[in-house]
Amino acid sequence: MKKEEIIRVMKILVRNKLSLLGLIIIIGLVITALFAPWLAPYPEQAKGEPNLEEKLQPPSSKHWFGTDYMGRDVLSRVIYGARISLIVAVAVVSLGLLIGVPLGLLAGFKGGAVDIIIMRITDIFLSFPPLLLALLISVTLGRGLENAIIALAVSWWPWYTRLIRGMAISIKEKPYVEVAKSLGISNWKIIARHILPNAISPVIVQGTMDMGSAILEASALSFLGLGVQPPTADWGLMVSQGKDYLLNFWWYPTFPGLAIFITVVAFNLVGDTLREILDPRLRRRFL
Amino acid sequence: MSSEPLLRVENLKKYFPIKERLFSKKVKYVKAVDGVSFTLQPGETLALVGETGSGKTTTGRTILRLYEPTGGKVYFKGQEITKMPMRKFKKIRMKMQMIYQDPYSSLNPRMSILNIIAEPLREMKVNNIEERVLELLENVGLRKEHMYKYPDEISGGQQQRVAIARALGVNPEFLVLDEPTSALDVSVQAQILNLLENLQKERNFTYLFISHDLSVVRYISHRVAIMYLGKIMEIGTTEQIFENPQHPYTKILLESIPIPDPKEKRRKKIVLPGEIPSPLNPPSGCPFHTRCPYARDICKEKEPEYVEVEKGHLVKCHLAEVIK
Lengths: 287, 324
What we know:
B: about 30% helix
């Protein structure tokens, strides 16, 4: 993308109040994740050290978000949980893009048998409910953060493939692609220089929105006991452990749940505005 | 003009298959180009004229094998190119370039003008790319300051100039101009036409000029072919076609040119009834008989052969000699 265009997009993102809110939350999240050891009041407890004298304390000046069943500071664990969530979001979406985008470009540009084979494979993946598929893979691979990320990425890439294939099909009919062919430019260069840069916008939008969904689904996996394992601080895991305490000790599952909610909403706010900017049909409103 | 034609098109056909229903095996064909033949001498401009849907653009694209021809042969400098393997043809196609109707969509919006023009030069391992790009820009009447702009930052006429500069970079000999001016303002149209004319004089370019604008055609072309439903109805020199049209369709087309003179007495205009018939179900016999004011029984039954009324002036009409 052109430099001026990136600057223009950023300007609009900042000017729009909702997307500005989303951006602030995401930036805050990144800062929180980067500086977790300095921000968390009890970093050792966030890493899992029990503190049984103070278990299940309500929010107070000492423990703003209260403590969990092992007496660990919930605020510290929520702060550390941001790290896991961001890693999951970035890793799942980039893995998904890494698999999905090249396959989609290939299917759309080549057409014919290549297209049919790739698209039938995506159909197989898409015929499963995504969470179910991720669960299935996760169970097969075993517990753990890495396996959860792989499981989610594997259930995710077909969406990108379909999206970019559709764009590639429409762009390869453009005269400038035809000109490139008649000027003797190789297919790989045509895909890299002409198709990809013009097809990527909706994928960027989808990817941004998916960061939120990836966090949500990773939390679901953790909630179900797959994915991140205790004592690591993870929002999904904390909600899962805290759900039994909800009635008497509401703070325990509520704060990590809120963290998930706010993060997902933030990514969606930014993604929504990005779509309005990058979708050529909606573009006029901002120019 | 020399006798060896640069381009010879023989009985060129392009049918597009259309599936009726998803699983039916019956395939219908849209006969977009149906037996087109002509030759082009080096340095000559042949205009292909016709209504929308007459197959003029498809003819141009099929010659460049942007569509694979269904039948017929095309010779470029005496070499048959229709059956040639694509790998071999790609080298020859560098000599044949196309200029598009919509200049904006023929330029990648994410590339700077410099990169757009430089792309083929880099493939050809040209040295001093920037200098060469600047030279090409100057050839088409643009300046250095345009080099770092993007297609959406320059006007339509400038975009078309960039497209022409890009084509010049590979030293073509034959250019298919697909309505190169119809998306532009009238004043800019004239500039682009002049540019194309000058380039032709300097470099002995051969043009296949696809257009529906007869006044432009009269200005720029040496010979004219009138197309209707995928067939050439009449072909001849510009003078023959405009001064002595033989085919009723040509006559009606010429009469439809507006004359900017209020004193000009009101001519009795023959207005063509209806639309061009669907090439999916072309009429029997002469394809024009459904709209021809002179149509007789024979026109419905038998497709007319070409009649040479003068040297190089061919007409596809049963009544060419009768109507005068």
